[in-house]
Amino acid sequence: MLLSEVAANLSLDPVSLPANDVQVRSGYASDLLSDVLAKAGEGALWVTNQKHQNVIGVAVMLDLAGVIVAGGVELDANTVANAIEEKVALYKTDKTLYEVAGRMYEIGIPPASGR
């Protein structure tokens, strides 16, 4: 499923979008960066409550489809600037991490199976 389709389906608020739409291969939800590094793979869409710029570094390292910051968390200005600079798709939502992960599963995004 394309990232734009997921974003529309989940009513996500875009913060930073890459020039080209990307395929979402899987989904992953966690607030532990080390957990994401170990278990999310390329093309995964990551849901988190973390708002700092290290989130963008992880997204770049893994070549993630994008990052959703859930729970109405206000993003740091540096995080937004970094996402724009690195061309990382970054979304925010007031929905909880639990709700977003559940909806992703409902619309057919498979869980990440590790690296």
Structure at a glance:
This protein is of the alpha/beta class and 115 residues long. The protein has a single domain, classed as HprK N-terminal domain-like (Udp-n-acetylmuramoylalanyl-d-glutamate--2,6- Diaminopimelate Ligase, Chain: A, domain 1).
Name of the CATH class: Alpha Beta
Mean pLDDT, nearest integer?
Answer: 95
Order of strands, widest sheet:
1-5-4-3-2
What is the strand tally?
5
Number of helices: 5
Looking at the overall shape, the CATH architecture is 3-Layer(aba) Sandwich
CATH T-level topology: Udp-n-acetylmuramoylalanyl-d-glutamate--2,6- Diaminopimelate Ligase, Chain: A, domain 1
- Rounded to an integer in angstroms, the radius of gyration calculated over CA atoms is 12 Å
Overall outline:
globular
The helix/strand order is: HEEHEHEHEH
Output the CATH homologous superfamily.
HprK N-terminal domain-like
- Which structural class should the secondary elements be placed in? alpha/beta
Rounded to the nearest angstrom, the distance between the terminal CA atoms is 20 Å
